[in-house]
Design brief:
single chain, 135 residues, alpha+beta, Mannose-Binding Protein A, Chain A, seven-stranded mixed β-sheet, 3 helices, 7 strands, globular, C-type lectin domain-containing protein, CTDL_fold, C-type_lectin-like, C-type_lectin-like/link_sf
Length: 135
């Protein structure tokens, strides 16, 4: 599957594939988490809608370490928020789940209180959630 850089994401394209989320059992910076998920899975979690968010919450809740803070695959590039794919492409957000007062000045996204999205310094060590496509 290839997603063009900075294109609006075609959700129907993704629906042809089944996606699962896998919560980590160790903490890392956002960049290390991104690299790890790209190497062993299909990237950090990309959350396209409420259904994805529900499945993300389930993966975190049943994971080996249900910490409230996990990196997901979104980050800010030149003042715009994008999903970062494992191919190195940037995909526009089509659905948001920001927490109160978010986003703020930081550049990476973690899932936190009530499974809402909060920004954080990318160097902070958090658990993270990878995704894997089932073809």
């Amino acid at each position: 599957m290839y997603i063009h850089t900075k294109f609006n994401f075609n959700k129907t394209l993704l629906q042809e594939y089944r996606k699962e989320f896998i919560a980590s059992d160790f903490t890392a910076s956002w960049q290390y988490a991104h690299s790890h998920c790209n190497q062993y899975f299909d990237g950090l979690a990309i959350v396209l809608d409420q259904q994805d968010n529900d499945r993300l919450q389930e993966a975190i809740t049943v994971g080996s370490n249900p910490s409230p803070q996990h990196w997901i695959g979104g980050s800010k590039v030149n003042s715009t928020w994008y999903w970062n794919t494992n191919e190195g492409d940037l995909v526009d957000f089509i659905w948001f789940n920001w927490g109160h007062g978010q986003p703020d000045a930081e550049t990476c996204i973690r899932v936190w209180i009530s499974f809402k999205w909060y920004t954080s310094s990318c160097n902070t060590l958090n658990y993270f959630v990878c995704q894997r496509y089932m073809y």
